[in-house]
């Protein structure tokens, strides 16, 4: 099974891609299987458009060089592990107190990076980092080591440096601490000054955003030159001491939080999922089989995880927008003890998107929110809605079946929400005036419904003959 893991900081993002035993991911709860075989590693650094890429040898060398150089930088004691260009692919050189040169002796140099060696057939890549960038890279490595489900056999070995070699000044420490050092980096500093014995490293828990990207997806370049390269992941903020603990991974999350089963809430979330995925699915041609996924969705509609249900979905996730729609803690609070809803989403070969609750509805859902129930008021609003839609609907319909919608208006007759009720209504919604009416008020066709005031709900039917019907809402059928 193909897997991707992401470890993000403001100035650095590590992306690891690899394989896992398919028998270990047979259950849905196993949304975060072990990545045991590394196929590709990518390191994105702020200020550079192209990532550093390589395989297992590159990644292990990067980890060793980063750890060794961090120890050297904090202690001012030379560490050969950071400069071993004879046996390592990656090495560091200190330029000054705030600049550090990262050198990669790779077989090929990605475009966008400057090479200073003109005589070598395969010149090394040289990148200058400031101290903040360096320690964001150190923190990303920390997060990798904190992830027990990724290359668990790879461990970091720290060697203490005796006190008599410690030459770092207080000014250097003041410079390093604000640079977002990770727990293992602080352990390196303590060892360097011989203040504590070599500790058992207990790095911080990975942020949820790093774990959500571990959901199954097809491998992307540079594994295959015929596919589209992975875009740099959106960086997430460095956690502070006041950050609430985050559940380690999605597997643990699903095992420790309640499941959303209320039909009315599921119905509302179903719409939010569709509204996120539908406009983002741009590659709708070329599918040989339906791609079916199981989604985990938070109460606010954020997609927190997904798992391929069939083989084709596992291989074709790059043809879906799901990897780019996973929630980002930079834009919302981290997932911790929030309840999770589960949905089935199908990207069909004919370009139709299908979203439904994984377990279906236990009973008929209802519309959430306060409602206008006075018969006199609703009768007037019914007529007002009919007149507004009728005046805005023109042209010759191309659909051959009724388009059915639930439309809600406020006490003034202004549209506050609309929802397609059948598939043809999804497919031909642009032939109705509803999205234009909604967009004129909220600036978006998929804005969240107005839930701050009581609403009157109606069923609106656009018929192929050009006839319009507006009747009071009697509930979902």
Give short descriptive properties of this protein.
477 residues; alpha+beta; four-stranded antiparallel beta sheet; 12 helices
Uncertain parts: 24-30, 108-112, 114-120, 161-250
- Give the rounded overall mean pLDDT: 74
Tell me how many strands there are. Answer: 15
Number of helices: 12
Question: What topology emerges from the helices and strands here?
Answer:
Elements: E1 2-9, E2 12-19, E3 37-45, E4 52-54, H1 56-75, E5 90-96, E6 99-104, E7 125-130, H2 131-146, H3 170-176, H4 183-192, H5 208-212, H6 250-256, H7 263-280, E8 291-298, E9 303-308, H8 311-315, H9 322-325, E10 340-347, E11 353-357, H10 375-392, E12 403-409, E13 415-420, H11 423-427, H12 434-442, E14 456-462, E15 468-472
Q: What features would you describe in this structure?
A:
This protein is α+β, with helices and mostly antiparallel strands and 477 residues long. Helices cover 26% and strands 21% of the residues. The protein has 12 helices and 15 strands. It has helices spanning 56-75, 131-146, 170-176, 183-192, 208-212, 250-256, 263-280, 311-315, 322-325, 375-392, 423-427, 434-442, and strands spanning 2-9, 12-19, 37-45, 52-54, 90-96, 99-104, 125-130, 291-298, 303-308, 340-347, 353-357, 403-409, 415-420, 456-462, 468-472. The strands form 4 sheets. A 4-stranded antiparallel beta sheet has the order 1-2-3-4. Strands 9-8-10-11 form a 4-stranded antiparallel beta sheet. A 4-stranded antiparallel beta sheet has the order 13-12-14-15. Helix 1 packs across helix 2 and helix 1 (56-75) packs across helix 4. Mean pLDDT is 74; it is low at 24-30, 108-112, 114-120 and 161-250.
């Amino acid at each position: 099974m193909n897997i991707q893991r992401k470890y993000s900081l403001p100035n650095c993002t590590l992306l690891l891609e690899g394989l896992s035993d398919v028998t270990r991911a047979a259950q849905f709860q196993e949304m975060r299987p072990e990545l045991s075989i590394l196929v590709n590693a990518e390191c994105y650094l702020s200020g550079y458009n192209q990532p550093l890429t390589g395989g297992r040898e590159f990644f292990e060398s990067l980890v060793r060089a980063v750890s060794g150089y961090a120890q050297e930088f904090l202690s001012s004691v030379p560490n050969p592990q950071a400069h071993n260009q004879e046996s390592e692919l990656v090495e560091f050189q200190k330029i000054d107190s705030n600049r550090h040169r990262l050198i990669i002796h790779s077989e090929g140099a990605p475009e966008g990076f400057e090479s200073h060696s003109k005589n070598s057939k395969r010149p090394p890549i040289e990148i200058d980092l400031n101290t903040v960038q360096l320690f964001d890279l150190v923190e990303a490595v920390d997060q990798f080591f904190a992830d027990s489900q990724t290359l668990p056999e790879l461990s970091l070995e720290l060697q203490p440096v005796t006190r008599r070699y410690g030459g770092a000044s207080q000014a250097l420490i003041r410079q390093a601490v604000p640079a977002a050092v990770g727990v293992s980096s602080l352990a390196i500093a303590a060892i360097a000054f011989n203040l504590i014995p070599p500790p058992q490293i207990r790095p911080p828990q990975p942020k949820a955003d790093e774990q959500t990207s571990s959901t199954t997806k097809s491998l992307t370049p540079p594994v295959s030159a015929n596919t589209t390269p992975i875009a740099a992941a959106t960086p997430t903020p460095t956690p502070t001491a006041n950050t609430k603990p985050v559940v380690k991974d999605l597997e643990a999350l699903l095992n420790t939080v309640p499941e959303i089963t209320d039909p009315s809430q599921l119905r509302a979330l179903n719409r939010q999922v569709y509204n996120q995925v539908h406009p983002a699915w741009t590659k709708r041609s070329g599918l040989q089989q339906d791609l079916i996924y199981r989604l985990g969705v938070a109460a606010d509609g954020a997609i927190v995880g997904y798992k391929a249900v069939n083989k084709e979905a596992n291989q074709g996730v790059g043809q879906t927008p799901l990897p780019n729609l996973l929630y980002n803690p930079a834009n919302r609070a981290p997932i911790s003890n929030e309840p999770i809803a589960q949905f089935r989403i199908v990207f069909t070969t004919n370009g139709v998107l299908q979203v439904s609750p994984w377990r279906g509805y236990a009973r008929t859902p209802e519309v959430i929110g306060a409602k206008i129930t006075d018969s006199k008021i609703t009768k007037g609003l019914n007529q007002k809605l009919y007149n507004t839609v009728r005046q805005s609907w023109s042209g010759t319909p191309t659909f051959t079946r009724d388009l059915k919608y639930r439309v809600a208006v406020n006490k003034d007759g202004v549209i506050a929400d609309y929802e397609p009720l059948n598939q043809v209504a999804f497919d031909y919604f642009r032939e109705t005036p509803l999205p234009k009416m909604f967009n004129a008020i909220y600036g978006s066709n998929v804005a969240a419904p107005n839930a701050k005031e009581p609403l009157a709900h109606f069923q609106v039917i656009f018929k192929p003959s050009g006839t319009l019907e507006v009747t009071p809402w009697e509930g979902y059928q």
